[in-house]
Design goal:
Helices cover 56% and strands 11% of the residues. By secondary structure, it is an alpha+beta fold. The strands form 2 sheets. It has a 5-stranded mixed beta sheet, sandwiched between helices. A two-stranded antiparallel ribbon has the order 4-5. A hairpin with a 2-residue loop joins strand 2 and strand 3.
Length: 346
């Protein structure tokens, strides 16, 4: 029997690629789990896998088992510890890149179309005015032989007016499409869960920052022991915590760009503050979050304290985002190794 095709490679190849990417051997139990993920991409299991592996991470044994899968003894799976983080640019997914390229290309086409429609509308309006003037002159000329010409001119004028109406409608539709594309463009740069800008928006803001608004500092924030929250209460509660932390960071740093960088990690681009002042400001935001008392909405049971570890560094003139982000990320891990719930600056 031939393998099934779906336009993205045959099913068996895709399942094999999934098993290889997650370090799973081709055991029947592993194949069944991969089959469920690949053949039902909109299902709850596939969506959870997409969320857990965002940023290039592998599923852990507990992740697979919580999703109803089985991990066979001796199978190679990712340990519970997170793998080394890829660089900032490596985080950006191919799907996101392709979506943005499509939006930008379509936006350019719509702009060209709208400009062309306006030019045609102006030309048609002028042509209609000339025809109206010519028809009036012919009509007053008197000779009966010109009556037919006047009728033809009148018919042409009516057609031109109809064309003007249709061109006006097409122009309005183009403007509507452009507005929708602008909305799609914003969506491509915004995190769906928290509503914050995403790492693409952060990269663009960093690349287009104005040095006159400096100095600039880059901070990386990470929710401490977030995996314990997901393990103890489930990803739905974890998502609520992420959204609550996102709101608090956005409120406490409302003058600056706060983004969800991925997973339980946030990034902040601060302008106009020295490194010492930026660190003090971030420590205030950290203290606000640590002081909140999170409770489960359904039972009012305390969720426990939620804390942040933060690494912040001064961005040097002309420095790339990779270099600044890597330095802030190292400072973040220093904060974690020093006991968490603190800001480390350098």
């Amino acid at each position: 029997m031939a393998a099934r095709k779906d336009g993205k490679g045959d099913l068996f190849t895709r399942i094999g690629d999934f098993l290889a990417s997650q370090g799973l051997s081709p055991e029947p139990a592993h194949y069944t789990f991969a089959y469920d993920v690949i053949t039902n991409p909109d299902g709850a299991i596939a969506q959870a896998v997409m969320r857990l592996t965002d940023g290039g991470f592998r599923l852990s044994r507990s992740d697979i088992e919580k999703l109803g899968g089985r991990v066979m003894l001796g199978a190679a799976v990712q340990p519970e510890a997170e793998p080394p983080r890829p660089s900032y640019r490596d985080h950006q997914s191919e799907v996101e890149d392709e979506a943005v390229r499509l939006v930008e290309a379509t936006q350019a086409q719509v702009d060209d179309f709208a400009t062309m429609m306006r030019a045609m509308q102006d030309q048609t309006r002028d042509f209609g005015a000339d025809l109206a003037e010519s028809a009036a002159a012919i009509d007053t000329a008197g000779p009966a032989g010109l009556d037919a010409i006047a009728r033809i001119a009148g018919t042409m004028l009516a057609r031109v007016r109809d064309a003007e109406v249709r061109l006006d409608q097409a122009t309005r539709e183009a403007e509507t499409l452009r507005a929708k594309l602008a909305e799609a463009n914003d969506t491509a740069r915004r995190d769906a869960l928290t509503g914050l800008p995403n790492r693409r928006a952060f990269g663009e803001a960093f690349d287009h920052r104005r040095e006159l608004e400096g100095p600039f500092c880059l901070a990386v924030c990470d929710i401490d022991r977030f995996k314990r929250i997901n393990d103890a209460h489930g990803h739905q509660i974890g998502d609520r915590v992420l959204s609550a932390v996102a709101r608090t960071l956005s409120e406490e740093c409302q003058k600056y760009l706060v983004v969800r960088h991925g997973g339980e990690e946030f990034a902040i681009l601060i302008h106009g503050l020295t490194l010492a002042d930026a660190a003090a400001h971030l420590d205030g935001a950290r203290s606000v979050i640590a002081g909140k008392r999170f409770r489960l909405r359904e039972t009012d049971k305390p969720l426990g304290q939620v804390t942040l570890s933060i690494g912040v560094t001064a961005v040097q003139t002309g420095e790339t985002i990779d270099a600044a982000f890597e330095r802030a990320d190292r400072l973040l891990y220093t904060a974690k190794s020093d006991g968490r719930d603190r800001v480390c600056a350098a």
